[in-house]
Amino acid sequence: MPENVLEYVESALHSDAVLLPASAVSLPQNRLFCFTLTKHSEHLHHLRLTFSHLIFDGQCYRIFCTMLTRLYGQARVRPDPVDEAQRTRCLAPEATALQSADSVAFWKDRLSRYPLGQTLSFLKTPHRGESPFLTVRRSLGGSDYAALQAFVAASNSTLFRLIVAATAITIARYSNDQDLEGLCIAHTLDTRQQPGAPGCFTSLVPLWIAHHPDWSPRQYLSHVDQERRAVRPHQQLAPQRLLGLADERLNRNRPVLNVVVNQSEGLLPSVCPELEGLKVELIETPSTGGPYDLG
């Protein structure tokens, strides 16, 4: 399981110290979040939240701000330590994801035939240890966006599925793998409204996109539509249970779920928690960039 970190640092820096820009900060390997509180002086504290935007989106950030405000208010009113029973009652009950026999059988069969990731050789860096940002962002509007909407509507599909299809085509084009049979593209699933939702409110669902050089974009989109219809009845299976069903032989020495399309609607807001008696302000604009981010 990922090793997450909560840190408290006594800093020798002066109160006017400048923190590193967000682009220079990344999560250590095998961690989903790292929260660091740095005490520069009695009157200046910096709280840095570094996390995977796949499991901590804008909705989670709002919940975090609300809980931090509430807990800080309780600490000011009643500074006594909270006993274990009270702490347990404050925590949200751990939800158990639906794990029906049909879903387990479905994923066991599928993962016995398809790997959960692929080697992306065109993203490798020339120097070991480097992790540069490869970011492509383009906002569509006007006639281009209208044309895409019309294409999606005529195909009886969705913009999300179109993005998955375009991602598969792009990766296949740059992979230079003559024997490429297909790609595993996972996508996030907002499970807040689902019974038995995972505690992080986001699940990962892998889709297998077959590679056919002679396919048209519409054929790729149709294939993605078929994949989504196939996995939808089984998408509530907890990710850790799903990963446990993966075929070790197919995934040996291969990255797992290394291509993810995030469809979360919870963008990070530029807001601060309200802490009574303290002046709280953002010193950095929230950044959702990441290594090899294609948005």
Quote the beta fraction.
Answer: 5-15%
Number of strands: 6
Mean pLDDT across every amino acid position: 75
What is the helix fraction of residues, given as a range? 25-40%
Tally of discrete structural domains: 2
Order of helices and strands: EEEHHHHHEEHHHE
Provide the structure class. alpha/beta
Name the poorly predicted regions. 14-18, 20-24, 82-98
Short structural description:
The protein is α/β, with parallel strands linked by helices.
Topology:
Elements: E1 5-10, E2 33-41, E3 44-51, H1 58-77, H2 84-90, H3 101-111, H4 142-154, H5 159-175, E4 182-190, E5 202-210, H6 217-231, H7 239-244, H8 248-251, E6 260-261
Parallel strand pairs: 1-2, 4-6
Antiparallel strand pairs: 2-3, 4-5
Describe the structure.
With about 300 residues, the protein is an alpha/beta fold. The chain has two domains: about 5-90, no CATH class; about 100-260, Nonribosomal peptide synthetase, condensation domain (Chloramphenicol Acetyltransferase). It is about 30% helix and about 15% strand. The protein is built from eight helices and six strands. The strands form two sheets. Strands 1-2-3 form a three-stranded mixed beta sheet, with no helix packed on it. A hairpin with a 2-residue loop joins β2 (about 35-40) and β3 (about 45-50).
Which labels suit this protein?
295 residues; alpha/beta; Chloramphenicol Acetyltransferase; three-stranded mixed sheet; 8 helices; globular
